[in-house]
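Researcher: Can you fold this with MTE in place?
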Amino acid sequence: MSNRNVKQPSRRAFLGGAAAIGAGVVTSSTAQAQAADPLIVNPQDWAQSFGDGVDATPYGLPIEYEADVIRRNVEWLTADTVSSINFTPIHALDGTITPQGCAFERHHSGAIDLKKSDYRLMINGLVDTPLVFTYEDLERFPRENHVYFCECAANTGMEWAGAQLNGAQFTHGMIHNMEYTGVPLRLLLQEAGYDSSGKWVFVEGADASSNGRSIPMEKALDDVLVAFKANGEALRKEHGYPVRLVVPGWEGNMWVKWIRRIEVTDEPVESREETSKYTDTLEDGT
Ligand code: MTE
């Protein structure tokens, strides 16, 4: 890039800076304050030529100097990354919204690649009219935006058997908080005409594991969202692109990603994913 029209900073400005430092201006490092800081007194490369033009990154990524703010996996925790978890770098974030790019991932059989144009969502079972929605069909329903946190049932698990790993990322990083955009599940169930004998919905993902989960109808009609955006942008692949379920306040494993089918049933299905794992003992011991 040419430096033709770049104006050089005046020498007086730098000398002025040096004089101020010499006069004892307090900086974060008193030792440095005594010497002339080259970052202040010398002309810097970045001020002597043009920066990037507006289209250098049509969809921006974090700058390379923030490369340590990333999700982290613990290799010995699982046999393979396709059925594993990584952790949100909560120690390095501020505010309340988690950027999608570093929000923890939990997959039972890997994050799948599913195009919007190949997307289908079926509602069947105890309904008047079984329906299949395309992505465009979902977009035609009234949408809502809500901020919800998602927490894996295993969050803090790294401490259940005594401290195993240092750092908040590993002990408490199975959590993220995002603003979701989606259609209330209630509206889709109403469209299909759910039967009053329908007491549960069984939701299933399009991935190999399917992560099928049973949700009581009362919850399904309350605040469950069929979401297609998070923090204003399309869901990332790893978070269920193009469409996932958001089940506010209920453990992360219910938030079925790549959701493909919702069956209205009269009782919980007790699928593999909700009996072989994610079960809690009731007070009576069952
Ligand atoms: N949905 C499908 N289809 N497949 C999965 O493996 N994992 C579940 C849930 N939904 C999973 C899924 C689990 S156990 C959790 S904790 C959350 O997704 C994690 O969501 P995230 O990967 O967006 O953080």
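Model: Folded with MTE in place. The radius of gyration is 26 Å.
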